[in-house]
Amino acid sequence: MRRLAGAAVAAIVLLAGISLLGAAATPGNQGFKAKWADWLRSHHGAFIVNPMERWYYSSNAPARGGQPKALNQIPSAAASTHPLAKPPSGHLAPPAPVPLVVSPAPPGEGAWQPTGPVIDGRYGMYVAQFRADTVYTSQITTAVWIDPNVLRLRLVPGSQEPGGTWPTPPDLTGTAAAKAVAAFNGGFRFQDAQGGFYLDGRTAIPLRAGAASVVIYNHGRVDVGAWGSEVNMTPKVEAVLQNLVPLVDHGRIAPDATYHDTHIWGNTLGANTVVARSGIGVSASGAVIYVAGPALTAKTLAESLQRAGAVRGMTLDINPEWVTFNFYTHPNPTNPANIDAAKLYPQMQRTATRYLGPTPESRDFFTISTP
After folding, report:
1. Which of 27, 20, 326 is nearest to 158 (CA)?
2. Counted domains in the chain
């Protein structure tokens, strides 16, 4: 028995050492803990990592009740310093206020604040802050409304997710950085996303019928929907990112969204773990809506997308390491590569310069740029 116990301990120490060395050798700009967790999941160690993460986030869930002291500070709108090849063709009407579910409300809750550059006299982005539910009432969820007629959304492949060699580098440098006004996270790792990745005529991960899909067209329009029924491949499709199944469909919480099903909503943490989550949707008018918050379940993320105006929506990445939205301003008109970066809200764990080069980003992400 002593020999068996000794052998078991030695095996555990050996496996721990191998996993630590593997994580240390993993490229990318994420923290070591995230690299270690991803390495274990990639090497059949999810049964170790997932319960530990569920326990950690459940044990460190925010306190119930309470009130936020104030809304977070959002960068103000400013005149664009970007040279435009041609003025934008039209713009969408500003969004209606987000319905509130908690009373009393701090000043400004639910109202949309313009931010980012004013291009040809038009606001391209608005930000609204609100409480997602009546339980975690001290926690602020934030939505970003983006007009694709004024600003351009693009999908960027990460160095590991989906990996491979692409004409587009896995970070923001050069002209892309000079024109960028924001960037935000993509979806799950593809071993968990139950979907695929397509960009500029190349399929890196096969697209799956029925999967929730963000679709970007070559003229700038963006759509979200179930692949094969609501959105399909056409010659005008520039990019597709898939992640799980729809959260919002036809303006309602998706009927097939089973919030207790960890298979659908992520083996990592499951649907009911209160943790940082993000999602993306489109409004009836065609605006893109990004939602993120530090204390969301799959259900409250879906409800937040719906309240922010999404008629179709889906989840993106989860947990504090991966949920990121950064604004970029260019204070020097003669040097647009000189960038100031700011987080959407302070609890976002990664730095505001996460997607800026020269360090490659390991996971796919989206950029928002001037035309």
Report:
1. 27
2. 1
Would you say residue 193 lies in a domain? yes
State the residue for tokens 């997710």. 161
Query: Measuring CA to CA, which residue among 343, 286, 4 is closest to residue 153?
Result: 286
In this prediction, what percent of the chain has a pLDDT beyond 90? 63
User: Rounded to whole angstroms, how far apart are CA atoms 277 and 110?
Assistant: 19
Any domain includes 26: no
Q: CA 357, CA 116: separation in Å to the nearest integer?
A: 21
Strands (E), the chain: 78-79, 113-119, 122-130, 141-146, 152-156, 180-185, 197-199, 202-205, 212-217, 222-226, 237-242, 248-249, 252-253, 275-282, 288-296, 312-318, 325-329, 340-343, 365-369
Gyration radius from the chain CA atoms: 21
**pLDDT, tens digit (0-9, with 9 covering 90-100), for 12-68:** 556 556 655 654 555 566 665 555 555 455 554 554 555 666 655 666 667 888 999
Contact between residue 345 and residue 140 where contact means Cβ atoms under 8 Å apart: yes
pLDDT digits (tens, 9 = 90+) for 90-100: 678 889 999 99
Among 136, 142, 55, 56, CA closest to 323: 142
Q: How many CB atoms lie within 10 A of CB 240?
A: 23
Whether 45 is covered by a domain: the verdict is no
pTM over 0.85: yes
Instruction: Say which residue the tokens 């207790």 belong to.
Output: 260
Regarding predicted confidence, which is higher, 150 or 87? 150
Report the amino acid identity of residue 90: G
DSSP 43: T
Question: Dihedrals φ, ψ of 77, to 5°?
Answer: -65, 145
Q: What is the residue whose two structure tokens read 């967790």? A: 37
288 HSE (CA, 13 A, CB side): 26
- List the structure tokens of 37: 């967790």
**Distance (Å, whole) CA 286 – CA 78:** 24
Count, residues in the chain:
371
The DSSP symbol for 162 reads B
Q: Is residue 349 part of a domain?
A: yes
The residue range of the domain holding 207 is 67-369
Q: Which two tokens stand for residue 76?
A: 């103000």
Structure tokens at 70: 């104030």
